[in-house]
Design a protein that fits this description.
Length: about 230
């Protein structure tokens, strides 16, 4: 009986989502600037500008928090589901950052029709993530991810529904893991250096033994040659 294979990591999902959302946003901005959406234009622009700017600031924070929440090698070493930092507020911060930034740019156009794409982006993110990365994470982490999924929103950053009970990596643990890794690497280097020295030493000994054998052999030949000469005399 064959075991069910875990789904492979959907590396293409992020590129697909970002390309689609950005393309839609660019087209809508161009359409609005060319005056093809006159019915939705609003004379009072400042509310759109404020909300749009706030959305863009939120997007920048999500991106910053995603990339600088901790060393990537820690995640690889521990191989644990990360639920602290920005991931305690939203499960897919990078996807959400793209959604909020694109919506913020559209809101700067001050058009009522350009509020609708926010919900479109939300639907696209939900469908993309639910059918790709979430399946992979469920296969990778099982019940741990399902529990995390219940507590943290997929798209909209918000406070966790209840305190996360999952084990997170503290800064002290991160430093400890890095020290252990560096120590292990230094041990490997030392062992490889010692092995190299041993092999060199072993090679030198073998070379000396061969040289001694050659010298003894040469001496024997000289003695045989000398005996032959004396016998001929």
């Amino acid at each position: 009986m064959k075991k069910d294979k875990k789904p492979s990591k959907p590396w293409w999902a992020g590129y697909f989502y970002i390309s689609l959302v950005v393309s839609i946003s660019v087209v809508l901005v161009i359409v609005s600037m060319l005056g093809f959406l006159p019915w939705g234009e609003c004379s009072v622009k400042w509310p759109f500008w404020i909300v749009g700017t706030l959305f863009m600031i939120l997007a920048i924070w999500l991106l910053y928090a995603s990339y600088f929440s901790g060393p990537e090698e820690i995640k690889e070493i521990k191989h644990e589901l990360i639920t602290d930092g920005v991931w305690a507020s939203v499960r897919n911060p990078i996807y959400s950052a793209v959604m909020f930034f694109s919506t913020g740019v559209l809101l700067l156009c001050s058009n009522y029709f350009l509020i609708i794409p926010f919900f479109l982006f939300w639907i696209i993110e939900t469908l993309t993530v639910a059918n790709t990365e979430e399946k992979y994470l469920i296969g990778e982490y099982g019940d741990e991810y399902l529990e995390y999924k219940k507590m943290v929103n997929r798209c909209i950053p918000w406070f966790p529904k209840k305190k996360l009970k999952l084990i997170n990596i503290t800064k002290r643990e991160k430093k400890k893991i890095l020290k252990e890794r560096l120590y292990a690497e230094s041990l490997d280097e030392r062992e490889s250096e010692e092995d190299l020295k041993k092999s060199i030493k072993r090679g030198d000994v073998e070379r000396e033994e061969r040289d001694l054998e050659n010298i003894e052999h040469d001496k024997e030949r000289e003695e045989e040659t000398q005996e032959e000469i004396e016998s001929e005399k």
